[in-house]
Amino acid sequence: MINFMLNGNVVQFIYYKYVLIVKYLFYHYFKMSIFKYEDINIKNINYDKPEKKGTYYYSSINYDKKPLLILTPKMKSMNNKDGILRNSNIDCESITNDFNFYDFFLKIEDRNVKETFRNNKEWFGKEIPLELIDDMYKRTIKPVKKDNKPSFTFKLPIIKNKVQCHIYDQNKMIIDIDKLDKDSEIIFVIHIRGLKFLKQHYYCDCYVSQIKIISSKIERFNILDECLIEDDNNEKEDIDIIDEEILNEINIKKEKEKEKNVLKKNLELQMLELKKQLDNL
Fold first, then answer.
1. Residue 45: helix, strand or coil by DSSP?
2. Max avg pLDDT among 144-158, 198-212, 236-250
3. pLDDT tens for residues 105-116?
4. What's phi and psi for 34, nearest 5 deg?
5. How many helices (H) and strands (E) are present in the chain, helices listed first?
6. Looking at residue 161, which CATH number applies to its domain?
7. Does residue 77 form part of some domain?
8. Which residues make Cβ contacts (< 8 Å) with residue 200, sequence separation at least 6?
9. CA-to-CA distance for 222 and 255, rounded, in angstroms?
10. Strand pairing of 202-215 and 166-168?
11. Which residues lie closer than 8 Å to 19 by C-beta, 6 or more apart?
């Protein structure tokens, strides 16, 4: 491996080290871009000037020049696999009566409207009244009815009836959407991508980037298929059988030893008798 390929090895080592550094920076960048919603400063959300994309205009959103990826609190799923695939979204509600995440999303939507109004002349070349912009904005968050918990509907990336985002269990293992049941406790990573402007209205384009299932009604009970209970009586019987066998072996050994001693004694007597006869000659 060494000889004239030494320089090649050095170059290869440097390249390998460079790849590790790039991978680390890439991982670090995206890892740090996932924020807890309570740590986000709404004022640091930035909006790009809308660009025409086919039949609509799109304003990209970033947070301190990073993708706006938000970690949600623990929630409860309100639909199962069939409902999710049919509507391409997931309905969920807060487990507790905590309105902090709900209020956070309300602030996001208010900021969307205010930023559109503040930049409307630069973006659209005309001044549009705030009331009209507010009427055009289609809100993601719906009002909460009295005595109800906050509920949310988030879009899932689905192509050809297959969910594109990863779903993890508590052990961080990728699992199938079949494991996502109604009433499952879940946590999301939501990606708020930007504002999508159509002819009659516009809305905040966000979708679920990752799901973690904390628990499901199937996994709350661990039912064993195999019998793991040992019967003490059976164990005692086995011990008794083993003890009896050992005793039998010991007894047989003793009997053989006794027979051997008798045979030896008889042989000695015969030898002694023979010796006497020889002495008398």
1. strand
2. 198-212
3. 999 999 999 999
4. -95, 115
5. 6, 14
6. 2.40.50
7. yes
8. 136
9. 57
10. parallel
11. none
